[in-house]
Amino acid sequence: MPVYQQKGKQVSQEYHSSKHVVQQISSSIKHKKSRFIILAFLLTFHFLLGRKSSSKSVKKEQVQATEAMAESAYKVPAFREREPEGMQEYQRMAAHFGRDLSTLQQELHRMKVATHDQVENIEITREVREKSFVRREVQTDTPKPPEFLVGLRSHTVWEKTPVKLLCTVSGSPIPIVKWYKNGVPVDPLSAPGKYKIERKYGVHGLIISRCSVADSGVYSAVATNPEGKVTSKATVCVRRPAGGAESSHLPGQVPLLSGIHRSKLEVTLLDRFSVTFGTEGESLTLVATMVVVPDLPNLPPEVMWYRDDTLLKPSRWAEMYVGGGAAKLTFPHLNKDDEGLYTLRIWTKEGTTEHSAYLFVKDAARSVSGAPGAPMDVTVSDVNKDYVMVLWKPPNTTHEPLITGYFVDRRKSGTTDWVQCNATPVKVCKLPVHGLTEGASYHFRVRAVNSAGISLPSRMSTGVTAAELESDVEVIKIEGRYDIVVRQEELQGVYVTLPEPPTEVHATEINQTYVVLSWKPPSCRGRAPLWYLIEKSVGDSNLWQRVNTGVQIRSPRYPIYDLEDKKNYRFRVITVNKYGPSEPSESSPIIQKLDPYGVPSAPGQVIASRNTKTSAFVQWEAPKNPNKLVGYYVDCCVVGSKVWTPCNHRPYKYTRFVVHGLIPGETYIFRVQAVNVNGLSEESQESAPLFIDAALTAPSAPYGISLLSCDGSSMTLAWKRPKNTGGTKITSYYVDKRRAGSLNWKEVSQSPATNRVYKVENLTAGAFYEFKVQAGNLAGVGLPSEPSKAFACEAWTMPEPGPAYDISFWEVRDHSILVQWKAPVYTGNSSITGYFLEMAKKGSSDFVAVNAEPVNHRYLKVTGLETGALYVFKVSAVNASGKGKASDLSDAVCAKALPGIKEIEYGVDEETGDVFLSFEASEISEHSKFTWSKSYKEISESNRMNVTSAGRRSRLTFVNPEKEDLGIYSVAVSDTNGVSSSHTLTEEELNKLLELSYNIRHPIVPLKTELNYEILEKGHVRFWLQVQKMSSATSYRFVVNDKEVTSVEGNKISHDASKGIIQMTIEHFTRANEGTYTLQIHDGKAKNQSSLVLVGDAFKAALKEAEFQRKEHIRKQGPHFSEYLTFHVDNDCTVMLVCKLANVKKETTFTWFKEDEEITLDVAPNPMSGACALPIPLFSRKDQGIYKAVLADDRGKDTSVYDISGQVFEDIINAIAHIAGSSASEMMLQCTPEGIRLQCYMKYYTEEMKTSWFHKEHKIASSEKMRIGGTSEMAWMQICEPTDKEKGHYTIEIHDGKSSHTRSFDLSGQAYNDAYAEFQRLKAAAFAEKNRGRVVGGLPDVVTIMEYKTLSLTCTVWGDPKPEVTWFKNEQEVVSGDHNQISFESGKFASLTIKTVTVEDSGKYSINVRNKYGGEFVEITVSVYKQGEEIPEPKLGQMAKSTPIPKSPAPPSKPQTPAPSMKTPTPTPPPKTPTPAPKSPTPPRSAKSPTPPRFMRSPTPTKK
Fold it and tell me: Where are the beta strands (DSSP E) in 696-739?
């Protein structure tokens, strides 16, 4: 390995040998300057090349150093002399190594500086020793028995790491040391490379390389010389690591390679994937980054991924990628099938490099609460033409109901539809699936079923094709190009057609669901395709029944279902081909449907042990009856929670497992279940509770040894706690010493130190000493610290104090840190008066003072820090003589709060009323302790406060808090990463807490409500009160007017404990009940009372309400109104008076009255319907009045009165206006002879509605010019004799009390012109109609007269100007003569006289009256009968019918039908009106003037 890639840590033995070389060289050189240069160079060179074994001799190191200094000039390496085509590769490699050389140069410079400082220190030490005339110890040859100056110490190490056992032995002659393991001599030749024994300068060592668990044991070193023998023993414990070395814990590692497949690439793994947790359905990637040398983009390293012991291949479920300095394994859609131990193996130059970690995949969220998880590992076996065998593994169940069975689904490749294979759930984890199409490819999946529902489906299996794998074709290969294909029937000597029966019929699989029957095909098959028929027989009977009635079986095995429990069956098989069936085969042995195995028995004892802070190592005994075991499920539960959680979600094959994802500081128990195809076994017994923390190891080395005081014969030392305590409390420290320049270490004392301050005695004044410290815990003794500086044993006499020590950090937050330290051991010539604290960012020498004035306590809170920055601190003590020596620099601390850290909380205990401070630690270890302090002085024993701790919580409770308890309180948790907090208890907080404490210790019963009253039906009065909580010990009493009231008849007192209600009900409330009511409550120590004053007006109101309710109760005993009369308006604007009835019967009568007059309806009211209604159509002011409804029967009578007047009338009109206004049509225009009329149709209109008309936003009042009116269907406004002034926009507004409804018409432009022209036409037509000629009266319709009488037809006519009169008979004009005389007198009276009428005079007579404006045509029927004939009875009282005819001078009007109306863009159809049809014009008849169109609409939209 190149020098720049080797580690730079220097072990103590290498330091000793290099130091010896320096001494030898320095003694041979006279000039001091040259000596320093050579020393510096040799030490620098040793730092770079000293990674080799320290067994190299000093002479060899000198030779190497000389050769290095005498190195010749640079020689061009051979690879520089390449051909041009190789230069590109060389330049790339040169640039790569150039970067590494730059790094090497920086490292060399740093080492040179460090070496220079160390050489100067050694030289100064030597000079001080010479000036002080230090006399070296003289070695004597006096015989001395062996003695262990430093004995062996126990070690706990990880597997595959080396361990060194060292001891120092003295004696004369030099003792011989032999090594033993468990009393057996250690022979390095028995395992080459395993053991290495060293001896240097009295230090003996045994090095064990790549320790395994088998190397654990008791090792001893036996030192022997002629004077005696001595033994030192130590224990070595080898543990398997967790995390990256997970595979060392677990069996089932990746397969060993059969051969070495070396690569030309050097691969070093950097960031490695750790234990990973995922959920089904998610996407997840495992990533490991690496450094590849050389890094060729087109030649990545060869990478292999394993799950458990299976090599993975790229698939739709696993995508692999390597490149860009990373190897990735991606799961696009996680499934529990993917759970397991994943191993990354990469080929390298030396062989392979590997990394393993576990992937856990938990169930996806259930579609139904309580449903089981999905099955997994669905596989298909025994594939043939008739069926396939589907197998799977069952899911784990912890709190879900037990699984009752499974459904298997299949899907043809290329389709998306899944078909369920089994109608009822199968109870075992395998199922033969038949009914497949031969040659088709299928996928399968499985769903689990329990009482709560069905699980999500499993991952589908790989595709399989339903086809027979066996064949009757045999291929014989011969030399040459051809093969011989031979069929079985061709080997038969005789040609046969019928096949032989099968043989060896037996059951290959039996369980509670089905039986798989197998047989051997016949040898003589009949030269045709075969199929089989299966028959069964119950017991020993010979009644055989066909099994496969509708299925042709072509494979020599088949599953049989629907067998009855506890019955014996025999089976036989018949071979069939196209020529016919064979004879039946021999019957099978007796077969009974049963489960020969069942689930496994429960696993044995479960043992859990620590692994890491978030994991545990669990192992168990295999079940006694494995019954084809598939694996195990491990569950865990937090002690006290009773909630079991699955640790693995896929069956695990081995009997030991590392459970990850546990909560640090919690205590867990574990259990195990065994799994096979029949399901899960019973749970094992629970393991012993296990506190989750890191496994115990030996602590790391202490550091920072400092000198606190010296009196000339002793030194007081201090050191810092090891950064890693090994998971348990450090119980001892071992201190060794040696004189500066000596190589032998000696123990300071036979008994170890228990504190980190230790006084070393029996030292020589003026000598320089070095020290080193080792820490020990339950797991053993850790590594020694680096040797301290050389301390001079000279008495301290300075007047200033010595250095403070043990700087620690607490309450680390993002912007603040609390710094604490311990007082100097040496105080100077006066007591210490204060301290100064200085700080600087790590790496900076610019220290700034934190406090301007000295503080007299040993803590200081530093604020204003930069989040995430690293800081160092030092402390100086002050006395009367001045500022003393500063302490050693503290460790660097990062200003960032620990994740999940919490602060101290204060409160009052709800039960006892004690004031307390409490703290919950974010992390703890098994041996963690809570230390409470006031003003950062530990609270040990105090009669003012008590400390209790349980789990993660600790509480400081004050006995009797007073003002002297105010101050800063802090808490720190040992064996954590600085978990701590503080709180300043102020006087304001204390007062609040004391008040709350008083209320708890002197409790009152808390009330939800004060004493109230309410009036119940029957006129009862209820006094009640509700408390927040009511116990069984609660007592109470009612006091009225200072007199206790008890529960008696008429006064009922009761309570409801569940609701906390206490009540008293007075059944007959009278004037005597006026007064003050009080309820007194007692509940243990708590009490309370509430009073209600019920006097004066308050009492009168209560009494009035009680009497009303009493009357109401009496009323309701008979028929009564549950809802009194009220109104509502229907959609057609009919007003309905409604009421609801109760307690009616068939005999109950109901009567309506208005103003005490009974109202009779067409349909009598029906009280039994529970409601009655009185309709008031076309509501108007005439409907005002007092309405009354009377309900009566033999039990009594009830009356409801409703006064429709005043506001009620207004409310009804407004309700009508709301419906009418909403239904209003668009405004329309109609012309009349008087003018132009604007009208708006609606469901109902009455003049009582608040209706307003506007012209150009000016309100219109009704007048001769503008007439306003309406009918029940519409509202109108008429403009009489319109002029141009009346042009403009017209609006109608209908108000309903809350809103208004508007409709508009624009009477201008063409609309006005057309309307005005129509008005003029109608006006002229009306004038003509008024003045035309007409018959006013006098003529009958029918006249009967006897022959020879005189007939006179006389009538009155009118017209202006005077009309002309013409008479007709049978449509022929009558001429005046002797027989027919016509007269017309005074322009008014017209007559026709017929003398001596005869039968010939019978006929139809008519008169035509006309002038220039028109006329009228009247017909009369004359009937003449002879004398002696029966006289026909005339119809008396009928007048002659007149028919108007048009005026003669004027042509008929053009419009004979209504003129088209002018409409707005969204018109509504006009009301239909009949149009009179004109009569026949022959004989000439006059017609009335045509009827003008009824309306016209505005051409513009209506304004709202």
Answer: 703-710, 715-720, 732-739
Beta bridge partners of 1188: 1153, 1201
Q: Kind and range of the H or E element at 61?
A: helix 58-69
The 10 Å Cβ neighbour count of residue 377 is: 19
User: Which residue reads 């080792």 in tokens?
Assistant: 774
Both structure tokens of 206: 């045994």
Bridge partners (DSSP) listed for residue 1040: 1043, 1077
Report the DSSP pairing between strands 580-581 and 503-510: unpaired
Distance CA 1287, CA 1154 (A): 48
3-state helix, strand and coil shares in percent for the chain, rounded to the nearest 5: 15, 40, 45
Phi then psi dihedrals of residue 48, to 5 deg: -80, -40
CA-based radius of gyration for the chain = 60
DSSP 811: S
Total count of residues recorded for the chain: 1504
CA-to-CA distance for 282 and 333, rounded, in angstroms?
6
Neighbouring CB atoms inside 10 A of 1497's CB total: 22
Q: Which of 860, 857, 858 is nearest to 849 (CA)?
A: 860
The count of C-alpha atoms lying within 13 angstroms of the C-alpha of 252, restricted to the half-sphere facing its C-beta, is 20
Element (H, E) at 1312: helix 1309-1331
Q: Which of 66-70, 874-878, 1328-1332 has the lowest mean pLDDT?
A: 66-70
3-state SS, residue 8: coil
Nearest to 306 by CA among 324, 335, 326, 327: 327
* pLDDT for 1090 beyond 90: yes
Q: pLDDT tens digit string along 409-424?
A: 999 988 999 999 998 8
Burial of residue 1002 (CB within 10 Å: 0-12, 13-18, 19+) is exposed
Is 253 a residue whose pLDDT tops 90? no
CA angle 296, 297, 300 (to 5 degrees): 75
Residue 460 is which amino acid? M
Tens digit of each residue's pLDDT (9 = 90 or more) over 896-918 = 998 889 999 999 998 889 999 99
Are residues 717 and 683 in contact, defined by beta-carbon separation less than 8 angstroms?
no
User: Beta partners for 453?
Assistant: 450
In which region does residue 278 sit, left (phi positive, over 0), alpha (psi from -120 to 50) or beta (all else)?
beta
Q: Are 722 and 775 in contact (CB under 8 A)?
A: yes
CA angle 1032, 1036, 1039 (to 5 degrees): 170
Which one, of 1460, 1467, 1464, 1468, lies nearest residue 1495 by Cα? Answer: 1460
SS (H, E, C) 162-227: CEEEEEEEEEECCCEEEEEECCEECCHHHCCCCEEEEEECCEEEEEECCCCHHHCEEEEEEEEECC
Identity of residue 1352: S
Round to whole Å and give the CA distance between 658 and 842: 40
Locate 236 and state its tokens. Answer: 């070595």
Asked if residue 1437 lies in contact with residue 1397, where contact means CB atoms within 8 angstroms, the answer is no
What percent of the chain lies above the pLDDT cut of 90? 48
Residues 803-826 as b/e (b if ≥16 CB within 10 A, e otherwise) read bbbbbbbbbbbeeebbbbbbebbb
Q: Where is 23: in which H helix or E strand?
A: helix 12-27
- With contact defined as beta carbons under 8 Å apart, do 1149 and 1192 qualify? yes
CB-based contacts of 37, cutoff 8 Å, min separation 6: none
- The tally of CA atoms less than 13 A away on the side-chain side of residue 106 is 5
Residues 414 and 1222: their CA atoms lie apart, in Å, by 64
Neighbours of 314 (CB within 10 A): 11
CA end-to-end span of the chain: 97
Q: Convert the pLDDT of each residue in 800-842 to its tens digit.
A: 999 999 999 999 999 999 999 999 999 999 999 999 999 999 9
